[in-house]
């Protein structure tokens, strides 16, 4: 049976699990129900297989004694075939439960407003042990967009407007939009000052492709990526590899960039010879060598005079 036909068969047999009306909690079986782990609410760009395997091993211990793992995921009904649910948060837990062959507690957020679902997803993402700053920035911008009605460019203009002294309105009702933006940043699990967001996080959205990929893949810290923006384009990929392979701290990254952009000094091949001549005592040479040296020095004087 093809995957497509299997999906049709499962969809025909699938029955919606009983959901507690007071808590919206239900037991979800990921091996039977199709959960979209790459939904619009999922901010992870990459899930490591090792993380799923680790979670599966943890869940197997509960399955072995007939218990449900004491954890929860958050979902809402999907409109994308063949999925029955979109993950809001808990993608690794859901994938781990599927690998372990066990059910998992899920909370149904289908009836919640889109704005609240986005806030839940971003908040959970920020509480991860390893939040990716680039993913986080995109999630926060999505929240601000939902609150203000501005697109990404409009939000950038609003932040720049505040940074540069609030001269003129750059978007409709700038003061009202700014109050909403501040409210979003203050209400995050890890509150961020607007100035910090403008200087440290917003520039991540305009990283060169190689830096963007390294940050999304989790192999390069965002603070190092912001420094590496100054690296000449033809030296960037080699610099990224050097920083990652050697685990260079930010201070050494700055030194690496400084060496790359410092003006190249022209070679001075005559310096060693001039140094030797300065130390030489001509009277220590045999007479014929003194005459040869004097003749060569005379030629050098003529060349130098001609150069002027």
Written account of the structure:
This protein has 308 residues and is an alpha/beta fold. It folds into three domains: 3-112, Alpha-Beta Complex (Conserved hypothetical protein from pyrococcus furiosus pfu- 392566-001, ParB domain), CATH 3.90.1530; 114-206, no CATH class; 275-302, no CATH class. The protein is 55% helix and 7% strand. The chain has helices at residues 3-13, 49-64, 91-100, 114-126, 133-148, 152-163, 174-186, 194-201, 209-216, 222-228, 233-246, 250-261, 271-279, 287-307, and strands at 25-28, 35-36, 72-77, 85-89, 104-108. It has a five-stranded mixed beta sheet. The longest helix has 21 residues, at 287-307. The model is unreliable at 1-14 (pLDDT under 50).
Secondary structure tally: strands: 5
Described by its quaternary structure, the protein is: single chain
- CATH-level-2 architecture of the largest domain: Alpha-Beta Complex
How many helices?
14
CATH class membership of the largest domain? Alpha Beta
- SSE pattern, N- to C-terminal: HEEHEEHEHHHHHHHHHHH
Please give the alpha-carbon distance between the first and last residues. Answer: 89 Å
Q: What do we call the CATH topology of the largest domain?
A: Conserved hypothetical protein from pyrococcus furiosus pfu- 392566-001, ParB domain
- Rg to the nearest angstrom? 32 Å
Helicity range: 55-70%
